[in-house]
Structure of Histidine biosynthesis bifunctional protein HisIE:
Amino acid sequence: MNATPELDREQGSAFQPKFDAAGLLSAVVVDAESKAVLMLAFMDREALDATIATGEAHFHSRSRGRLWKKGETSGHVLTVKRILVDCDQDALVLECAAAGPTCHTGAVSCFYRTLRDGSLQNVKT
């Protein structure tokens, strides 16, 4: 019996990233040690290839419309320790070591607020 392309993507060993109609896939960045969520970004083929080639996280900046290396201006690069791929290969988890705050606001994580009773409150760290 022949495997279907979907079954091959979901259970096979070949890396076959499934980009959306805009050519992007979601990338969740977590701290390699604590597993705390640091940020969410998007990758296109160029960003994925650059990340794999260099070991440093690259993303597609939707606002800039171009390749963006995390930390290119701040120096707060994300060194990729491991890439986890979800079942249908349209989302990744990048386990990274951060060279400084991940959020452009200076917070360790971009997820520094919680929704409580209809308003945002800072998370205690």
The longest strand covers residues 78-85.
